[in-house]
Amino acid sequence: MALDTVELLLHPVRLRIVQAFLGGRTLTTTDLRTGLSDVPPATLYRQVATLADHGVLHTVGERRARGAVERSYRLNEAAASVDPDEARSMSPQRHRQAFLTFVAGLLADFDGYLDRGDADLARDVAGYRQNAFHATDAETAEFVTRFRDLFAEYAALGPGPGRTRRLLTTVLLPAADQERPADRR
């Protein structure tokens, strides 16, 4: 069954699988089962297969384990992203559904962090907050470009001694209490 990118990612388990690979990780289904222990194994295997069949995950290695072939996967980030044209064509209801799925995944990540039993936001340099700034559309585009460049610089460091995989989640919206300048004309 052919699914578009939005439909692939609207599934909460598939979204969590994709998020588990962020940061250039190579994982097996056994690794995923450890990280997503609340997902039934049959569901996890089925959703990994769906993502692989649609090119979102690609196999980078295979090895025999207990009489079966265990595959190692990596994320095809381009295939796991909704392009701007596809986003423009989505209805408001579909955007709401996509955002809700995204937020549910974020909640699952935060719950997992808290459930470890040793959560210390100050020690772990973790947190959540909302900030605001005023900018034209051009200034906002420049901000996003510079932010992506800065993020890419740190993402390129990769795993290593003393490095902890960290999740950075962004949502950029015009404030609900403001009209866009073009709307005031």
Automatic annotation (TrEMBL):
Q: Which InterPro entries match?
A: WH-like_DNA-bd_sf, WH_DNA-bd_sf
Q: What start and end residues bound the annotated signal peptide?
A: none
Name under which the protein is recorded: Helix-turn-helix domain-containing protein
Ranked from the top, the taxonomy reads: Bacteria, Bacillati, Actinomycetota, Actinomycetes, Micromonosporales
